[in-house]
Specification:
The structure is a homodimer. By secondary structure, chain A is mainly alpha-helical. The first copy, chain A, is built from 20 helices and three strands. Chain A has helices spanning 10-44, 51-69, 72-84, 88-105, 109-131, 135-156, 162-170, 176-200, 215-229, 265-283, 300-314, 318-331, 341-349, 365-381, 389-401, 427-444, 449-454, 459-468, 478-486, 493-507, and strands at 236-240, 246-250, 253-258. In chain A, strands 1-3-2 form a three-stranded mixed beta sheet, with helices on both faces. In chain A, helix 1 (10-44) packs antiparallel against helix 2 and helix 1 (10-44) crosses helix 3 (72-84). Chain A is globular and about 70 Å long. The N and C termini of chain A lie far apart (81 Å). At the A-B interface, helix 1, helix 2, strand 1 and strand 3 of A face helix 1, helix 2, strand 1 and strand 3 of B.
């Protein structure tokens, strides 16, 4: 009998470390679940002045999460599990948990909990400031957030640019240099296109866009989009918030939200289309990753690639608008009386410099992102103060988009991201668009997407995306997933070509 | 210099134990907050098939709560703090935390967490079973709940009747003998009254009750009730659920829910009135008890006394219906065309044996409670099996209320309480009514409540209740609070006299 192979020997102890790892992962899941549901509640149905008690609870919970993750026990467990991991899943769990450990392990526990509490307080403060056009009341929160994010970056990598630390956090491997190059390419494409459109673009009918669109009918349209996307109502519900978002608690419970505008039906339509793309990703992660660090979408860029794919590449395509047209006519017979599907297609794709990112068209959208990229970089690098933010914001909107910002509500207070403590997230919106442009180009090689979308048939597309990306959760490295999605090495030219072709045709340039 | 009085001596170490106690209390608060918000979410907006991931998270969180509360460290801390406590608040905190410790300290941690997970699963199972009239699908959950509650009672007091352990848990000091006496008195009052009404009661107009009451108008009525009760919308919101309830996260965040019935306007009216009474209690606990064990209402009986006071003593009074009448006419001009306020008063107070507890009138309500009291006592004492519950339920409804139960949806599946793991709670509904009858009698000695209610002025009543009960949270012992509320030793005769006088007058007996 070979002692090395006896039961109860090394093989069994290997299993023990993985088992302990899974138990830790489930504990971490539970705290994340609790914080996610409290966040969702706070954004959707909580009474306006309820944040103090939530912040107290969140501080304790985030501290408990921190204590579970960052400890000598966890460090030792990760070492044992790294040696013991056999399957691809086990190895990926160790890798992702080690990454989480490294990301927050150097932050003092008190600072980590205080930051959670700070963002709990800053989100409602932002909501109030936005409603009241009162940047000054939000500024002290933003100052503390910038200060804390700089400190956290410094703990993690004292010698690295603090903004790049956060870029890398959201999109592993992304550098400031890459971002600069990427945005320069976009700028070189978009700015001449916009100029050409302004100069000689054929007119687009917009008279029907701003009228009275009953909310009850808009709700029916949301339901229709969720049905076509195939968002199972047993596992995915739609709420209403100031700023639409998606929150995945686990693969069987994903929430999306929208914002109804009585004067603008298309805003909700494309919010649901966008958040629905996020939700499809979360809902379709392989259940075998439930309650582990491998559950959920991999990076923010990959997440945005899915949401923008469904919002823009599907939702704003001629094929899909052809499919949706009868529903739109049925829901809004008076409002769309005499409006053709081609006119709807042109209207929802028109390029028009504007004030609000979430309402922006596909072409100018990246300019909105560029403003935020440059400003958050400057805030994090210390070359811009919070007090100077509104003026800097307004100047960049004038420079890149040619619009005058009338107030901070429609300016630097419009997005919740910074109030949530997210800086370095915005570039992922533009990257996501670029990933999905390439993915759609690649899928078209073997699939007649337009024919499918014209019939409201999302199944072949969803099957491909599930296979390439969704099912994997975080089990694969982000670079692997981007290549898998794109069908090859990432190349931003697919996106710039897409914009050039689309807008040249649309405006007869 | 007297060494006994030097700083850093005994006085400082006393403060340390209290400080540590407060930190523990805040941690416990955070876990309770997380579980409460997840529960509320699950009852209000969560997708139907989302319970699996919630149950996993809840199991971890309740286990963490248990581990925080029940440990050698906590036991030692409680001992130190008991010796060190100086102020009334400190002493009360020690007392209440010790009570919590004693209540769950003897339950094995795994069983405690498993019970939380079980109730997470049984609540949606109950909802499904109720919707589908499928008791068999819910029975296995209820069997496990009964088994676990019996086991928990046994751990706590092995020699005591397990049902009495739970009665005492909800209403400290309550015994089965007291309950038997109390319900016997109610029975002696109610049964002859009901017989007299049936025999010679004057007729009550009910033709206007069941018609089409638009939900949108019902929503406006909910808002009106919340305004008159003075429920600050900054701290209290109304949701919609199958079964109305109140959930207080902390004194600044209290949620109430209702259920709209298109054919029955008064159901929602009195649900909001009832839950609003619970909410007023939670909202008015002194903020100095925030995040301690003294926050929130004291016992379920005291809580029900407040909800039933606002539902019945205020909401079903002639004075308040006089006040509300113009609003009702404005919201429902067609439905109430030709209906007088006296006819509304008589209709909402009519006594009529029925199937559904939450829809029951004030007189027969206690008979519904008596059915549940007797059945849950039998389940807990092992003299009734879960399999036999539907038949036993139907037999008692026939015996006490004279009605035939058509199906379990309208029978033993109607209430969520048992699915939540609450057995021993129901008697508090009847006790609460009796407490508030006595409180109202006492307040009338010095206040003209009818004159105030006829003007929609709840302030003097609220001031009195805040002073007598609400502000104290759990800082006072329940017996003290009951006496304070009632203005003297509790005497059920106030309640039986109230019922006799009210129904004798109403039906001209």
């Amino acid at each position: 009998m070979n002692k090395n192979r006896r039961p109860g020997g090394k093989e069994n102890s290997m299993k023990d470390s993985i088992k302990a790892l899974r138990e830790l992962e489930k504990r971490l899941y539970a705290y994340q679940y609790a914080m996610a549901v409290a966040d969702y509640d706070s954004e959707t149905v909580a009474p306006p002045e309820s944040s103090a008690g939530r912040a107290e609870a969140m501080e304790v919970l985030s501290r408990a999460y921190f204590d579970q993750l960052v400890s000598a026990d966890t460090a030792a467990l990760l070492q044992r599990a790294a040696a013991d991991a056999e399957t691809e899943q086990e190895k990926a769990e160790v890798r992702e948990l080690q990454r989480s450990y490294d990301e927050i392990g150097k932050i003092p526990a008190e600072e980590y909990a205080a930051f959670t509490k700070l963002t709990q307080e800053s989100m409602p403060a932002w909501g109030k400031a936005k409603r009241g056009n009162d940047f000054a009341s939000f500024a002290p929160y933003l100052e503390k957030i910038v200060e804390s994010l700089r400190a956290q970056a410094h703990y993690f990598a004292p010698d690295r640019d603090p903004y790049e630390v956060w870029l890398d956090r959201y999109e592993h491997g992304l550098t400031i240099a890459q971002c600069d190059t990427f945005f320069a390419a976009l700028r070189e494409t978009i700015v001449p296109l916009l100029a050409a459109i302004k100069e000689r673009g054929s007119a687009i009918r917009t008279d029907f866009l701003y009228q009275n669109w009953p909310i009850e009918q808009q709700r029916k349209l949301s339901k229709k989009i969720m049905e076509v996307w195939g968002l199972d109502p047993d596992h995915c519900v739609l709420g209403e918030t100031e700023h639409p978002f998606t929150s995945g608690f686990w693969h069987g419970d994903v929430r999306i939200t929208t914002h109804y505008m009585p004067q603008d039906m298309f805003s909700n339509l494309y919010s649901v289309a966008h958040e629905g793309g996020h939700a499809l990703y979360e809902l379709n992660v392989d259940p075998k990753y439930d309650y582990t660090t491998l559950a959920g979408g991999a990076t923010t860029g990959l997440h945005e690639s899915q949401s923008r794919l469904f919002e823009n590449y599907v939702g704003r395509s001629r094929a899909f608008i052809h499919y949706l047209y009868p529903t739109l006519l049925e829901l809004f017979p008076q409002q769309l009386n005499g409006v053709t599907e081609e006119e709807i297609y042109r209207a929802v794709n028109r390029a028009e410099p504007s004030l609000i990112r979430t309402e922006a068209d596909e072409l100018t959208y990246s300019l909105h992102i560029m403003v935020r990229y440059e400003l958050e970089k400057a805030l994090m690098q210390g070359t811009l103060t919070v007090a100077d933010l509104p003026a800097a914001w307004n100047a960049k909107y004038k420079e890149y988009l040619g619009v005058d910002v009338p107030d901070d509500t429609h300016g630097c207070l419009q997005d919740i991201h910074w109030a949530m403590g997210d800086m370095g997230y915005f570039p992922s919106y533009a990257l996501g668009s670029a990933y999905s442009a390439q993915a759609v180009d690649d899928l078209r090689k073997t699939m007649d997407l337009d024919a499918q979308w014209a019939e409201g048939n999302m199944q072949p597309l969803k099957d491909a995306l599930r296979s390439r990306v969704w099912q994997h959760g975080r089990a694969k490295e982000p670079q692997w997933l981007v290549q898998s999605l794109c069908g090859g090495a990432f190349d931003a030219a697919h996106y710039t070509n897409y914009l050039k072709n689309k807008y040249t045709e649309l405006y007869g340039l």
